[in-house]
Amino acid sequence: MLFIVYNCCLHCNRYAPQNIAKNLQENENKMNRNKKPLYRKVNTKAKGVHHHFGGDYSTNRHSKNNVVGMSKGKRRGLDYTPLFKFLLSKVGQPWDKVHSEAVSRLDREEPIYYIVSLDKSSAKDVVLVGESSYFSGLFVDEQGILQLTAPHIGPGDLEPSCACCTHSLNGKVFTKKYRG
């Protein structure tokens, strides 16, 4: 249904038909800004969580041969689990829309391609992210639709690689036990 709204008065240009598309685009951009980002900071104070801090610059900053300086651009302490769950919830939808929304809510584009492949031949059935978190692999089909690489694989099909960790597929704990 299309509504054409004309100027509310001669001096106001706010409701002119040519401005409706512009206003809709601005509203969509505001909605994406109001949505939560698709990543979170990892609790770096927790016991046993190491992000390889230090050693880059701290050990050689007082030496005379210090040419490099502090390492720039190292990204530590970000968890992209919300992104992976978002992508899994968008299976069956057009890739262009999914991709544009994901990019608008991320700090960078690269994490999308940790589990998404742009063609089926290079797609993985299951992707290990971290020590014990697995996610289903995704690919974009010929029609530009986001698809699961192996929809038949579930948490009951995979076996943990150790007994000490809780292994999960798409956030659901493996049902098989470790057979060391």
Structure description:
The chain has a domain at 76-180. It contains 3 helices and 9 strands, in the order αββααβββββββ. It has helices at 17-34, 81-89, 95-104; strands at residues 40-41, 78-79, 116-117, 126-129, 133-136, 138-140, 146-148, 168-169, 172-173. A 4-stranded mixed beta sheet has the order 4-5-8-9, with no helix packed on it. The longest helix is centred in the N-terminal third of the chain and has 18 residues, at 17-34. It is globular.
What is this structure, in a nutshell?
With 180 residues, this protein is an alpha/beta fold. 21% of the residues lie in helices and 13% in strands.
Provide tags for this entry:
single chain, 180 residues, alpha/beta, four-stranded mixed β-sheet, three-stranded mixed β-sheet, 3 helices, 9 strands, 13% strand
Helix content: 10-25%
Structural class: alpha/beta
- Secondary-structure element order, N to C: HEEHHEEEEEEE
Strand content: 5-15%
Strand order in space, largest sheet: 4-5-8-9
Give the uncertain stretches in residue-range form. 1-11
Largest sheet: 4 strands, mixed
Mean pLDDT: 79
Please give the number of β-strands: 9
Categorize the overall geometry. Answer: globular
How many separate helices?
Answer: 3
- The radius of gyration is 23 Å
- How far apart are the termini? 62 Å
